[in-house]
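Help needed: design a sequence for this.
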């Protein structure tokens, strides 16, 4: 968007000295036109917010693209009510997993966790799901170790514990918000 090289501003690929731009617009008394031009240039120059991390690297690597999700939102309050969950005394794993699975089947979106402390066991995320924890939301994983040692499809107990949050071959997954896991 902006690079300071001898007081120059980059518009597209054309470098124009700032002083020439300012003199032109001051003489024309077109301050609002200048503001509109600058705002328009900034909008056109909007970059990937992660691009700064790729500057001056010794090799070229593919840039990470910002993740976008469908606009559909599911509030966990609905699922907590459905399962009779009012606080962290009741395990909410089924409610969380059902919300994630149903939203994924509908194309994805945001699973919003409200303020409060919610106890859960291991969860499996799906593609196109943003697990969003509102400010004051706490997802507390159960201390019951047996929840993390679930048998596989052949009935064998794994030699390693399952992770708290997992997923396989996923795309567009996010855990966002001001809450705490």
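Sure. Designed sequence:
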């Amino acid at each position: 968007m902006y690079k300071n090289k001898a007081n120059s501003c980059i518009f597209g690929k054309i470098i124009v000295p700032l002083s020439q731009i300012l003199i032109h617009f001051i003489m024309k008394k077109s301050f609002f036109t200048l503001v509109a031009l600058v705002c328009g240039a900034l909008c056109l120059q909007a970059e990937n917010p992660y691009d700064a991390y790729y500057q001056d690297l010794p090799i070229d690597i593919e840039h990470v693209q910002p993740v976008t999700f469908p606009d559909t939102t599911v509030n966990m309050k609905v699922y907590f009510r459905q399962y009779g969950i009012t606080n962290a005394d009741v395990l909410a794993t089924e409610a969380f997993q059902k919300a994630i699975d149903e939203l994924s089947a509908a194309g994805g979106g945001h699973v919003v966790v409200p303020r409060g402390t919610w106890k859960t066991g291991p969860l499996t995320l799906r593609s196109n799901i943003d697990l969003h924890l509102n400010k004051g939301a706490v997802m507390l994983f159960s201390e019951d170790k047996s929840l993390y040692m679930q048998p596989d499809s052949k009935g064998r107990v794994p030699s390693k514990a399952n992770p708290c949050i997992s997923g396989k071959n996923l795309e567009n997954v996010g855990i966002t918000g001001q809450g705490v896991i």
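Helices lie at 18-27, 31-44, 76-82, 93-105.
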